[in-house]
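Q: Here's a chain of 336 amino acids. Please give me its 3D structure as tokens.
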Amino acid sequence: MLKLSILDQSPVSSGFTHSEALQQTIQLAQAADRLGFTRFWVSEHHNSTGLAGSSPEVLISTLAARTQRIRLGSGGVLLPHYSAYKVAENFRMLEALYPGRIDLGIGRSPGGTPHTAKALRGVSADLFEGLERFPAQVTDLLGFLSDSVEPGHVFEGIRATPLVPSMPQVWLLGSTGQSGVYASQAGAAFCFAHFINGAGGQHAVRSYRSSFRSSALNVVPQATVCIYVLCAETAAEAEALASSIDLRILQTEKGEFTSVKSPEEAELYAYSDWDQTRLRDNRSRMIIGDPNQVRMQLLRLAESYQVDEVMVVTGGYHLETRLRTLELLAEAFRLA
């Protein structure tokens, strides 16, 4: 049976506050835990009106304390901005507090504008230099997590505390094949962001598998794919509710990082011909429909990627829409 997991970006709907968005993330995690989903990840974005999640480590700790069995993780920590050692200690702390339930997903994107990236890394920091250092940072991070910093390394003898017998599961996240290359070289798991890039993901995952190197993290390759999903009782209802996702993706492409609009607001938006083309093209990044339609499309997606787990980004303006998607998915796949 296909396993299902959740990536939640703590979206802020128009008329709601960032604090309310974070409370909604907590409610979604509790529902996912109760309904039988495998893992629940939270994202990292900065200086964004429409996304409240800026510190996945802090949010994961709260979610873990309010759930029972589901795995919690980052989707993902933007490693180029930070010290690999500090990230290792943050996630070792989470693993010590909630053993066997923590995932460390790593990304290399800026997570905001170049100006915001400078604020994160220091005004004198060079973002491109940070991206070039990413493979070495991954190596350092994995060395700290597994107590395997190589002899002669500048960090030899340094251990990440607290000292615990287990370690988080490490995932590399990406929307291109390059992240798959990094994941295969590190022996980490790989998650392809189909919700960001609806083309080329299957090839990226195949390449990851074919070049995978066994490591202390994984003996065999492990991959998943992440896609937008909205499920409702009827296809017509799902289509009506999905207009909020359509507009949100379009506005993000246009550099309009605003709150999630209601279906009524989306209907009033002045779409250009170019906008209409983008709306149609962006549907390749989404699965919208009734339970049977969504189930069949998710199974086809998993088969095309040759994975046994799919991660979904639940869309919609209302929390109830996102919760109902989880409930219908759990029923369709008999998760509980």
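Q: Can you summarize the key feature?
A: The longest strand covers residues 223-231.
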